[in-house]
Amino acid sequence: xxxxxxxxxxxxxxxxxxxxxxxxxxxxxxxxxxxxxxxxxxxxxxxxxxxxxxxxxxxxxxxxxxxxxxxxxxxxxxxxxxxxxxxxxxxxxxxxxxxxxxxxxxxxxxxxxxxxxxxxxxxxxxxxxxxxxxxxxxxxxxxxxxxxxxxxxxxxxxxxxxxxxxxxxxxxxxxxxxxxxxxxxxxxxxxxxxxxxxxxxxxxxxxxxxxxxxxxxxxxxxxxxxxxxxxxxxxxxxxxxxxxxxxxxxxxxxxxxxxxxxxxxxxxxxxxxxxxxxxxxxxxxxxxxxxxxxxxxxxxxxxxxxxxxxxxxxxxxxxxxxxxxxxxxxxxxxxxxxxxxxxxxxxxxxxxxxxxxxxxxxxxxxxxxxxxxxxxxxxxxxxxxxxxxxxxxxxxxxx
Length: 399
Known about the structure:
three-stranded mixed sheet
């Protein structure tokens, strides 16, 4: 159904990397969610009023909050289309994340209020009347929410939207909560057990859990999360496929909203190669990423000495030493500076957050092991933080 709606209402629906097409998907999803949730809210409010069920009323309010979320999602995708300007040179795509954050706050506030009303019903229960129309409306709601969860999930995957993926999870939770409400009414009708308040409380808890999940998913990109392993590996492998590239390191990816990613990376190439040739290769890599991946990539060129036997031998030795300490470590920018009495080995070590050695301990341990290779070698080490989700690959041995 999501594909059919896209075919009907979105021009060039297959070009999901196009920000305009992506925004059209988001706006279409917002409209579909708004209409469906308003329909369900109206039906459940009527049934809740007729039956006196706080659980059904709570579920109706949940649908109303979902409708409000759909409005915010719709506005978020609309505002994120606004092009870059003098004050916002990277565009406004992060508004989509802010809209998701606002939705999460609304859901948490509504969930807290429903906890209060459900506890009151638990302390002072009142009979709930069961009518066939109640069963029909709630069963219909479950079917609609199942469809919405599928619709949001498929559309979210298609345009890689955390906001729509969160909406899919919220719809799935609604299926569970509405089913619980229906079971409570059936239990009251056939066994006279007054579970309405307890089921209302369960619905409220589901709302709160959904809000916390959406809050986490929207806060992560705003705070600045590491790129996924899939993206990190793709960038590294694609760069390493170009002629003359020996290694890549110091990958950083900055997310300014869906479809607005910027990245920087260091690329190692032989120092013996004409710098103009290396520069042309780097230009080609940057253009190809902009065209193929919609990624604005900036590359720093690192020349590497590869035709000196002593340099190559010590590079291999340092690689073994670092690997012997931990497979989580990598190194790059290896250089040797020879003096009359000793030789400095200069390089950077990339260390993950929370490593079991402190920066000074790591330097000391590497230096101690290097000393065993010959007393005339000293180390000058800079410890870097790994900003990617996994160490990037190299072929020069500097890992």
